[in-house]
UniProtKB/TrEMBL annotation:
Residues 227-501 form the YjeF C-terminal domain. SUPFAM superfamilies: Ribokinase-like (SSF53613), YjeF N-terminal domain-like (SSF64153). It comes from the Bacteria. PANTHER family: ATP-DEPENDENT (S)-NAD(P)H-HYDRATE DEHYDRATASE, ATP-DEPENDENT (S)-NAD(P)H-HYDRATE DEHYDRATASE FAMILY MEMBER. Coiled coil: none annotated. This is Bifunctional NAD(P)H-hydrate repair enzyme. Binds 1 potassium ion per subunit. Catalyzes the epimerization of the S- and R-forms of NAD(P)HX, a damaged form of NAD(P)H that is a result of enzymatic or heat-dependent hydration. This is a prerequisite for the S-specific NAD(P)H-hydrate dehydratase to allow the repair of both epimers of NAD(P)HX. Bifunctional enzyme that catalyzes the epimerization of the S- and R-forms of NAD(P)HX and the dehydration of the S-form of NAD(P)HX at the expense of ADP, which is converted to AMP. This allows the repair of both epimers of NAD(P)HX, a damaged form of NAD(P)H that is a result of enzymatic or heat-dependent hydration. Homotetramer.
Amino acid sequence: MKILTATQTHQLDEATIQQQHITSLALMERAAQALLRWFEARFHADKPADTLVLCGPGNNGGDGLALARLLHEAGYPVRVVLLPADKYAPDYEHNLHLLPKVLSVRKLAAKSLPILDADTLVIDALFGTGLSRPLSGLAADLVCHLNDSGVRVLAVDVPSGLLANAPQPDPKAPVVQATYTVSFGLPKLAFLLPQNARYVGEWHVEDIQLSAKFIAEAATPWHFTALAPSPDVQLPQRRQFAYKNVYGHALLLAGSRGKVGAAVLASGACLRGGVGLLTVAVPGCGYDIIQTTRPEAMCLPDAEADFISVLPELTSYQAVGIGPGLGQHEASRAVLEQLLRTAQVPLVLDADALNLLGEHRELLDLLPPDTVLTPHVGEFARLTEKVDDDYRRLQLLRDFTQKHKCIVVLKGAYTAVGAPNGQVYFNSTGNPGMATGGSGDVLTGLVLALRADQRLDALTATRLAVLAHGHAGDLAAAHTGQAGLVAGDLVRHIGPALQALMR
């Protein structure tokens, strides 16, 4: 699923109107009908006692007016407040004239901001994606009043004041803090970034049959990967007469004294991820642990008891992963460097392998093409630079992957997979319960398993792993709750998660 800019979104609307031979009013009615369906599904058992629709002067306000009419016809109590302006969009004026006379409709005045009771549900239809500057004047006062009230807010398309695909030009300017945001056709980039979470709230996308042709032809670096199987992110079915070599022999270098658990989690995920064979290289202190907890894996104990000091011979393996619980001993750094210099198979780097790269950035030049790195935000900052702006971080992600010809899995609520061609794929699965120690180790093992699979290219394998990892978290949370979820629960749910992604 593509993510378009505000300009492209406007062009998409125009293309839909032209290609489907409909009017802009008809498209607006589609949007209002979609909002009504979502509204009734969400509030059928919790009908608001008071629904206030705030309408700006443009097409977003027109959506709000059409929705107000439909809500009234459906029997909901509705009142409408209009933001005064010098000019109004034609479709806004048309929908204003269609409002039933019995509806309460008034224009906003500076000294008469609307009364907001605790049980009021506000529908924010003030400004949409066409907004290009910070809110000011009466609109800003209204938004501040709304945010201070603490009432529930449903934002139409985007929260008013929030730019769809760029950072706020004035961080101090008010933006509606929505409880829910219902958008049309495609998600907005702003929805996926942590710095906008307090504005967007719980977001949803409703289908209004926008032009599939325009979307297919639109150029964008941003994509959203949904769980529903799609041709570009599917796990092939296993053949009837397949044998283990088809699914690869992986080598995992992980663990140090006190952190062998990371090797246990990563190896468990690799095994559950369908790898044909797995060998785990651990320090001497981890031998009994791996042999006991992961009997399906072979184990190579290092001569050093506390850390990995030797790189095994690599000719037997189809993919190599390194990093979970590795530690940052100088000998382990040397092993990482030797691996980068000599490996002829796909690599997956995580955790301390990334920290070692951050401390010794000259090693970045040794990364083989299509190496997969799986940093969280802090680890990524050590590889690039520390930034507070999520849009800037995305640009760093694109720059880094293109420069080093690698794939980066930037972990977070909507994990972003950056590809060597500058494309970025946001993930749809997962939940806050996965913010627990060891989740990243599980992802490393799963990526390693799919990189060893001879049927998958690097980007598809990585996107599949990220999608399945998040889905495993969702399946696990359904049993444990989010607060009770631990990384081992993810391992146990990898099989069903991958099954959901089978062709």
